[in-house]
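Render this sequence as a predicted structure.
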Amino acid sequence: MLDMRFSLATPVLIGTLTLALAACGGSGSDGGASPTGTGGSASGNPLRVVAGFYPLAYAAEQVGGDAVEVINLTPPGGEAHDLELSPQQVAEIGEADLILYIPGFQPALDEAIEQVAPDRALNVTEALALLPAEDHAQEEEAAHADEGGHGSLDGDPHVWLNPLNMATIGDEIASRLTALDSAGPFAAGSQAFTASMNTLNDEWAQGTAECRSRDLVVSHEAFGYLAQQYDFAQIGIAGLTPDAEPSPARLAEVADLVRERGITTIYYETLVDPAVAETLAAETGATTAILDPLEGLLEGSTESYVTVMQANLEQVRTGQGCS
């Protein structure tokens, strides 16, 4: 089980659940959804889907179209790892027909699911081949835990950064939605979503087929699935948690690799302080560029999963010298 960021203590969560469910307890009798997930299409309403964060919400929207109402628990500009649930969000989980999550990525959501919706949650990683964490990343996370950090991780949860994984997630969502509403348009939605993800994968495969460098130096190891799919070697300055501080030894190790291999670009992320990447770039003569892990969009953004991944492709093509 992954162990990331802040989690609500179970007694506090249980109290929150009790208050939230009491507040919406009468909704089933006035034509709305009940707290046990009966808000779906039997009443002619869209199926209610709650997603832990943006990529899962995007997949559900693309597969379900107008036949679903999708609620993203992580607000625009928010850090998905840091999710804490309000009473209203707990109520939304209790009322949902389907909840989409990655176990351990958002511990507060895991706890809420266990309390009010264990039979209505879809772990989107079940049908995927998962990557383990890098050895040095686990060492860094363990050292960070000793200093009061968030501890080590069992593996890389960033499955959505491979478009083909997103296609598989879309298929799984469609299967669950079809079980809830056999007349829904979910098979067609899944087929269209898969075609879109295949097209995006082809763009990445063609765009990165010939590159001067296959070494992808990133501020933290969120890009294992992307690197694996497109034949790059991920070199993380820090491990899987964005706020983990790399040791001086790790910084020196990566700096040596950058110099020895002629690496010209260090990538950092949106929503994460770029100071470490900028320091390493200054020491080695490299430049910095943004590589978005796509955990969420910024407030007011008009971008989508596809457009952000296309922007990431252009950053990688430039940074890695792809032709």
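Summary. DSSP finds eleven helices and eight strands in the chain. The chain has a mean pLDDT of 85.
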